Amino acid sequence: MIQRKLDPDLAAALAERIRAVEAASSAELVVEIRAHSGSYSHADARFGALVAFVALLIVLFSPWDFKDLWVPPVVLGAYIMGILVARILSLIRRAMTTRRDRDRRVRVTAAATFVERGVTNTTRETGLLIFLSLLERRMELIADRGVLDAVPVLEWNQLLEKTRQRDADANALLDVIRELEPLLTKYVPARAGDRDELADEIRFVNR
Length: 207
Hints:
With 207 residues, the protein is α/β, with parallel strands linked by helices. The protein has helices spanning 8-24, 41-61, 71-88, 90-95, 99-116, 145-150, 153-165, 172-187; strands at 28-34, 127-133, 138-143, 203-205. The protein folds into 2 domains: 8-38 and 98-205, Diaminopimelate Epimerase, Chain A, domain 1; 41-95, no CATH class. Helix 2 (41-61) packs antiparallel against helix 3.
């Protein structure tokens, strides 16, 4: 099962770390955690169909005598049960989908969040989104033009690849922010007139 809420102590530590980075640089960090980046109803249906098929085989080849009238409700009940179980257990949803599909959904949701949270609207174009999707166990970094123009491509790509490959959970967010800090401090230093334009609090979306 996936995490359904963020530990208050961790949330406070993340917000404090974000404020420290923003005090030392012109970057504006936004962190969002999502329970998942898609409905995955197709994965639920696949598992439901698998459970229904197994139930049908049991009915057809069982040593016990099942009346023909029992077959449809047994199979339908197994299908519904399979869907409900898949909705609860993230492991099943991962097993019923491809890594490529999950990664694509995270990228799309992260890009939408980047716009929705106003990360593109900072004065110096130095907004940066750290996006974590728990079911998919994937983290994404999306930076605005001011950051991408300032940080050398090689260093940014190395950090991006390392972020995507790490064991993505809420605690890993602190490590990512710590790794971002020296890059942002060096290449996107604080400037006179900088102001806090985006909320530092972590948003947890459980839907």
